[in-house]
What does this fold into?
Amino acid sequence: MSSVGTTSNPLRVAIIGSGPSGFYAAEALTKKAAIEAEVDIFDRLPTPYGLVRGGVAPDHLKIKSVTRVYERIAALDNVRFFGNVEFGKDILLADLQQQYHAVLFAVGSASDKKLGIPGEDLKGSFAATEFVGWYNGHPDYRHYDFELDKVESVAVVGVGNVAMDVTRILARSQAELMETDIADDALEALANSGVKKIYVLGRRGPAQAAFTNPEIKELGEMEEADIVVPMADATLDALSEAYMESDKADKKDIRNVEILKEYANREPEGKPKQIIMRFLVSPTELIGTDHVEAVKIVKNELYQDDRGNLRPRATDQEETFPVDLVFRSVGYRGVPLADVPFYDKWGTIPNVDGRIVKEFGSEEAVPGMYVAGWIKRGPSGIIGTNRPDAVESVNALLADVDSGTLWSPSQTDRAAMVNLLKERNVRYVTWQDWLRLDQLELERGKVAGRPRVKFTTIKAMLDALDEAKNAAPGD
Ligand SMILES: Cc1cc2nc3c(=O)[nH]c(=O)nc-3n(C[C@H](O)[C@H](O)[C@H](O)COP(=O)(O)OP(=O)(O)OC[C@H]3O[C@@H](n4cnc5c(N)ncnc54)[C@H](O)[C@@H]3O)c2cc1C
It folds into this structure.
């Protein structure tokens, strides 16, 4: 047999996950002129793009245009898409070992971190992940009911960009939401929402907030919501003041503080909703009998740890105020996959530069197994951060082609995966199918006067494809 990566023996790689890191890995694998590669991308959903479709806020449509780059990658002859195929259920590691030289996991971080406080499991307490998935039409969250019509006050715990997204969507007017690709159900529920107050709670101060400048600026430009920052919350403590005056001060932090001070000096205009930003506070308990009725918070102060980082610690000042709904947005974590090492503490797959290792801290690589994106490094950075991250992993994989440490598949015929999925009655979705679904969603949008109306259940997606096929037989 000729060497791996040649025309007669192409390098065959399975990529699990079609979010940004999956596509950037496919790009890196197919771009190397010296290597012939065949890449199959699998996703558990019939739709591609991971969090670009199911996470990025529906009112940030421009960001979603990054999918055009992914479309070009998927259109390559040596790249195939198998949607609606879940690793661990429809296909297993042993199946991949028979058909590919390597697998690269790019499954993202589908779960969230908990607050670990009493009352967290009461009705009305949710992860931001659930709300985000729901308003973005992710099939896993289609059935959620946040009872927004009965809600007056919401607490969003966390001050990262996801918390900003959640706050904005809760505060948007119906007219603003009509210009987005928000899921239809969410559009309707938000139109009937009783939300008047949205508290955003940050455990550290304004100078340590993770949100970026455009996101905090947007909160001050809402059609139907005033931003309220109590002066006491916008005022910096002595340690933060010292940081801001030092040459270590980050431009983003300086601008965030300026914007928040401007908000603190603003008079509310009497809009129907208020976004109330609180800093140096942590929730310590969610209170209610069977449903969240209030949140207890404690005031924090900052101290400098051994490494010079400013950390929060609780004081004895407490406060309780009524809320009907709580969204925690304090971080994402991955979920373990069958037969794949997992580092539970970080919620990631242990790896060294993208090569999966037996366990965290070990240098011993597991042959043929690689990882990229959020499941490799944790939930950090922007979409573009996943490109160099995926390139690093692919470079490790390509180096291993030369050293001969990849798998030796017995079935290298491209039809083998199609046959296996058919044998198992797995109704997979091809790239052509996805393009058809995409077109149908855009057409539904046109009818509704919106950019796109999404299909939000897998059944609806598959039925729509069947209908389209029946309407154009032989297509
Ligand atoms: C709410 C939110 C908003 C964001 N907004 C922005 C933004 O505005 N701008 C920005 O730059 N970045 C934003 N990000 C960050 C950005 O979305 C991530 O950097 C990026 O999506 C991570 O890519 P990934 O490929 O690692 O994971 P993901 O995008 O999560 O993709 C993982 C894919 O794997 C699939 N998958 C999971 N398990 C399996 C399995 N067992 N079998 C098969 N497939 C599987 C999933 O269905 C999914 O399609 C946001 C993130 C979140 C959470």
User: Anything to note?
Assistant: The longest strand covers residues 310-322. The chain has two domains: 11-110+333-429, 114-328.
